[in-house]
Design goal:
The structure holds two protein chains of two kinds. Chain A is mainly beta. In chain A, about 0% of the residues lie in helices and about 55% in strands. Chain A has strands at about 5, 10-15, 20-25, 30-40, 45-50, 55-60, 60-65, 70-75, 85-95, 100, 105-110. In chain A, the strands form two sheets. In chain A, strands 2, 4, 5, 9, 10 and 11 form a six-stranded mixed beta sheet that branches. In chain A, strands 1-3-8-7-6 form a five-stranded antiparallel beta sheet, with no helix packed on it. The model of chain A has no long low-confidence stretch (mean pLDDT about 90). Chain B starts with a strand and ends with a strand. In chain B, the strands form two sheets. In chain B, strands 2, 4, 5, 6, 9, 10 and 11 form a seven-stranded mixed beta sheet that branches. A four-stranded antiparallel beta sheet of chain B has the order 1-3-8-7, with no helix packed on it. In chain B, strand 5 (about 45-50) and strand 6 (about 55) form a beta hairpin. Chain B has no helices and eleven strands. By secondary structure, chain B is mainly β. The model of chain B has no long low-confidence stretch (mean pLDDT about 90). The chains are: A mainly beta, B mainly beta. At the A-B interface, strand 4, strand 5 and strand 10 of A face strand 9 and strand 10 of B.
Amino acid sequence: SQKIEQNSEALNIQEGKTATLTCNYTNYSPAYLQWYRQDPGRGPVFLLLIRENEKEKRKERLKVTFDTTLKQSLFHITASQPADSATYLCASTNAGNMLTFGGGTRLMVKP
Amino acid sequence: ETGVTQTPRHLVMGMTNKKSLKCEQHLGHNAMYWYKQSAKKPLELMFVYSLEERVENNSVPSRFSPECPNSSHLFLHLHTLQPEDSALYLCASSPTRVEGGELFFGEGSRLTVL
């Protein structure tokens, strides 16, 4: 079955370092991947979209890559700050054209 | 402020109650969605409406009944729920249902079923 998966373990890093989160998909080839940020008790907020023909996309301190060979997207936050602490979700449409989300990875940036 | 407003933000109900969740979007979008987010589980798509017409019902139990009276409003009617239905219910909208469109989420309605 088609799956989109993220590391469910929390990622703890020191302020100023680069955080790297992983999103893997299996049994399908999405045309694009989206990344969202979700703070506790709040709805997800869209961050970036990357298409299959784009290797990399940047927005301020954020960078997303899309590797169709590895079936993986990496989400990077450079010069991380405590305010970046949140859960980050990746999403893509499946064969039924429904936007499907991964389980999210919680990021904790320590001062 | 995302332009998508959900009420109530918190709801506690017994298994025999009937209640409704409301979502309103001020973005002029044509597609609206209900998602369920349970603890330690990915967001689950429940319903999709496009131009007020339901285009997806993702095998959701009949105790959840959606209603979309116009393109700005979406309701989720709840009746005879089970404790396992306790979750954060998120409403979202997008300009259209075209693939690749980002979703704009509301803050969610936290539902507790006793």
